[in-house]
């Protein structure tokens, strides 16, 4: 009997030991899982930090590249505009000295620079913020206006030269008409009646083309001598504005890339 009780007790102790062993193993397993999860989480955080650092570095390098690229585009555009401004002064100097050939060459160069600036403008607009793009477009418009004025100036000079070249060999009537036209053109102020007489007398000079007559009449009717100066002043103002906006954008660094 005692032996039976002892056997049962031993079995109970054995079962209890197994249960405690299983419980201990379970707690160990949970601890291992927690440790594994903690390790995984730490690895994930480290990985996320590494990825974030790589992305931030890549963005910084890309912003710096875009900033440098914009600077190169703007400097190329500025070089064209600088050359245009210098060419305007050369054209006006040639006109002042009545050097028609040099004046005409200068206007041809101005036209070439306007075309070059227009081509570069597409790149400026693509690379620049809207404010700088708008200023560049205004600058191009002013360049076109100045070029057109200088082109018209050459046409006026050519037409008036043709008018002055008419002498008595063209006939008394034609010569008298040319002389009267030159007298009207030399006046500081002309009336509407003078303009009508000018148009009438020009029509009596067959040696002039229709285009020359039109240009001479228009030059006297629109004799605002300060217009070209205002156009150039406006050009300089917008040009300085473009450079200031571009410089300010670049000085702002990567925070102003967009």
Question: Would you mind describing this structure in some detail?
Answer:
- The chain has 258 residues and is an all-alpha fold.
- The protein has seven helices and no strands.
- Helix 1 runs antiparallel to helix 7, helix 2 runs antiparallel to helix 3 (130-164) and helix 3 packs across helix 6.
- It is rod-shaped.
- The termini are far apart.
Number of helices: 7
Give unreliable regions as ranges.
Answer: 7-11, 254-258
Helix and strand string, N-terminal first? Answer: HHHHHHH
Mean pLDDT: 80
Shape, please? Answer: rod-shaped
Q: Give the structural class.
A: mainly alpha
Q: What is the number of E strands?
A: 0
Terminal CA distance: 95 Å
Q: Percent of residues in helical segments?
A: over 70%
Cα radius of gyration in angstroms: 43 Å
* β-sheet strand percentage: under 5%
Summarize the structure.
It contains 7 helices and no strands.
Question: Which features characterize this protein?
Answer:
258 residues, mainly alpha, 7 helices, disordered C terminus
Summarize the topology.
Elements: H1 2-96, H2 100-127, H3 130-164, H4 172-186, H5 192-203, H6 210-221, H7 227-251
Helix pairs in contact: 1-2, 1-3, 1-7, 2-3, 3-6, 3-7, 4-5, 5-6
């Amino acid at each position: 009997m005692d032996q039976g009780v002892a056997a049962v007790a031993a079995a109970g102790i054995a079962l209890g030991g197994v249960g405690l062993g299983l419980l201990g193993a379970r707690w160990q397993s949970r601890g291992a899982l927690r440790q594994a999860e903690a390790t995984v989480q730490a690895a994930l955080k480290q990985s996320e930090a590494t990825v974030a650092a790589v992305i931030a570095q890549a963005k910084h390098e890309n912003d710096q590249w875009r900033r440098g690229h914009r600077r190169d585009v703007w400097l190329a555009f500025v070089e064209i505009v600088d050359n245009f401004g210098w060419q305007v002064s050369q054209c006006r100097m040639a006109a002042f000295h009545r050097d028609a050939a040099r004046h005409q060459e200068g206007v041809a160069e101005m036209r070439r620079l306007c075309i070059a600036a227009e081509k570069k403008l597409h790149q400026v607009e693509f690379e620049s913020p809207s404010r700088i793009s708008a200023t560049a477009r205004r600058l191009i418009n002013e360049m076109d206006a100045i070029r057109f004025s200088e082109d018209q100036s050459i046409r006026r000079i050519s037409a008036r030269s043709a008018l002055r070249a008419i002498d008595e060999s063209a006939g008394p009537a034609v010569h008298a008409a040319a002389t009267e036209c030159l007298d009207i053109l030399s006046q500081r102020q002309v009336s509407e009646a003078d303009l009508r007489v000018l148009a009438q007398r020009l029509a009596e000079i067959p040696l002039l083309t229709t285009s020359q007559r039109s240009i001479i009449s228009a030059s006297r009717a629109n004799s605002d001598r300060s217009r070209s100066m205002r156009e150039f002043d406006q050009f300089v103002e917008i040009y300085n504005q473009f450079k200031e906006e571009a410089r300010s954008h670049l000085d702002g660094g990567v925070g102003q890339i967009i």
